[in-house]
Amino acid sequence: MCGRYASTKDPALLAAEFDAVDGTGDEAPGADYNIAPTKHVMAVVERKPEDEELERSIRVMRWGLVPHWAKDLSGAAKMINARAESVLTKPAYKQSAIKRRCILPAEGWYEWQPGEGRKQPYFITLGDGASLAMAGIWSVWWKDDVPTVTCAVLTTDAIGAVTEVHHRMPLLLPQDRWSAWLDPTSLDPSELLAPDPSIVDALELRPVSTAVNSVKNNNASLMDRVSLTEDEKPAPTLFEQS
């Protein structure tokens, strides 16, 4: 977790939603309903160019963080997530967590609930059209003076209803934490690394088709709710058990 997510808004809409400017140029990926590791995604960052004011912008990055000291890009698919509990101590992530934080906007993410014989996919979303703000970190890898900007999603222990589907979840940032998370002059994000219950309480856990299992499938129907049999429904939580 998180291994697939959906981001379908164009950069202009994201810029308005996150009070940013569109810095994607002609690099913006199109609507993607089944984002997989190493794909290009849009991210929100704040940077202060020399002699200029701090600017929040929408940028394009490659999903799967590659530290600047890596020999090549081959390990990116294994570094799509960074655990919030250790992001400030792991060498591959530490400097990015301190100096290069971002937000990865998403309509929602997919998670697979274990079951008898198969795993049932769920699309976890706010369901009201608002983007989820997944906490992320980024880095720049260079080859032949050409930069590749890469990123990872921070994850934390699942809380609330999400625990019915999986034990991990993205670190979701409420709007009042966006500025503090993105601020490049703030070098200690430790107080922002715990999940916010208010966002989790608002989430919809939507069972979806197993068509999402294949990265070849990429259309809006992947996010549509499907009906489950009693055997496929989530096991009751401790508080729901009689």
UniProtKB/TrEMBL annotation:
PANTHER family: ABASIC SITE PROCESSING PROTEIN HMCES, DC12-RELATED
EC top class named in words: hydrolase
Keywords, in A-Z order: Covalent protein-DNA linkage, DNA damage, DNA-binding, Hydrolase, Lyase, Protease
Family: Belongs to the SOS response-associated peptidase family.
Keyword Disulfide bond: no
Pfam families reported in the protein's UniProt record: SRAP (PF02586)
InterPro entries to which the protein is assigned, alphabetical: SRAP (IPR003738), SRAP-like (IPR036590)
Naturally occurring in which organism (per UniProt): Lentzea alba
Name of this protein: Abasic site processing protein
Domain of life of the native organism: Bacteria
